[in-house]
């Protein structure tokens, strides 16, 4: 099973300012077997954030391209769990509600933040896609099915993703290999780079 999913990206809690023109408008997710690669680009390709997920080996690579600077962080399963600690913990509440996204019937789960006053997140997930995903690498571990609608924190902002288009098509193996021109950094160094991006472009 291989192909790509295009998600529309919105920022529902941000005021409409001139800087919003720089914010990403879509995310592309490529999948092939147990591999996934997500890519989010800002307008004019000033910033690009990629994640390569190996669901078999339980490892993840995050890549950040900021103009000419390129940084990559490689984490094993323990490293991913450490990385996730920076995000607020959630309690998952399954519901009986369903909706259709990109032609697939999705179940609705509500993610409540346990120790935070942030608004709850509506998660929409399907098992009809035929793509296995345990969500072990994100805040929503325990959701049964592939996420076609959810919110995440990126660039210091709450970003909402809704799948718009799903295509089953050949995907090159190169999509799941980190380019060599990225400087390998630690988790703390990557967070510092992301903070610099937020301060420079996203305020």
Can I get a quick summary?
By secondary structure, the chain is mainly beta. The protein is built from two helices and twelve strands, in the order E-E-E-E-E-E-H-E-E-E-E-E-E-H.
**Can you count the beta strands?**
12
Distance between the termini: 40 Å
Oligomer: single chain
The radius of gyration is 16 Å
Q: Globular, elongated, flat, extended or rod-shaped: what is the shape? A: globular
Write the element-wise H/E pattern from the N-terminal end onward: EEEEEEHEEEEEEH
Largest sheet: 12 strands, mixed
- Beta-strand portion reads over 45%
- Helicity, as a percent range: 10-25%
Low-confidence residue ranges? none
Indicate the mean pLDDT: 89
Strand neighbour order, sheet with most strands? 7-8-9-10-11-1-2-3-4-5-6-12
Q: Helix/strand/pairing class, anyone? A: mainly beta
Helix segment tally = 2
How does this structure look, described?
11% of the residues lie in helices and 48% in strands. The chain is mainly β. It has a twelve-stranded mixed sheet. A hairpin with a 5-residue loop joins strand 3 (35-41) and strand 4. The radius of gyration is 16 Å and the shape is globular. It starts with a strand and ends with a helix. The mean pLDDT is 89.
Secondary structure blueprint with pairings:
Layout: E1 2-10, E2 26-32, E3 35-41, E4 47-54, E5 59-66, E6 69-75, H1 77-84, E7 90-101, E8 104-113, E9 121-126, E10 146-154, E11 157-168, E12 183-184, H2 187-201
Parallel strand pairs: 6-12
Antiparallel strand pairs: 1-2, 1-11, 2-3, 3-4, 4-5, 5-6, 7-8, 8-9, 9-10, 10-11
């Amino acid at each position: 099973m291989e192909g790509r999913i295009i998600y529309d990206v919105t920022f529902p809690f941000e005021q409409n300012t001139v800087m919003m023109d720089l914010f990403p408008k879509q995310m592309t997710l490529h999948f092939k077997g147990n591999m996934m690669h997500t890519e989010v680009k800002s307008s004019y390709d000033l910033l690009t954030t990629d994640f390569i997920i190996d669901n078999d080996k339980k490892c993840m690579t995050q890549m950040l391209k900021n103009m000419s600077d390129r940084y990559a962080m490689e984490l094993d399963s323990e490293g991913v769990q450490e990385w996730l600690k920076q995000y607020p913990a959630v309690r998952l509440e399954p519901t009986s509600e369903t909706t259709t996204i990109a032609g697939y019937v999705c179940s609705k789960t509500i993610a409540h933040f346990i120790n935070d006053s942030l608004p709850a997140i509506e998660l929409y997930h399907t098992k009809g896609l035929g793509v296995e995903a345990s969500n072990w690498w994100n805040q929503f571990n325990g959701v049964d099915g592939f996420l076609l609608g959810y919110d995440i924190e990126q660039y210091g902002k709450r970003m909402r993703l809704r799948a718009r288009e799903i295509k089953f098509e050949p995907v090159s193996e190169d999509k799941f290999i980190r380019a060599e021109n990225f400087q390998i950094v630690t988790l703390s160094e990557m967070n510092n780079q992301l903070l610099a991006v937020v301060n420079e472009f996203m305020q």
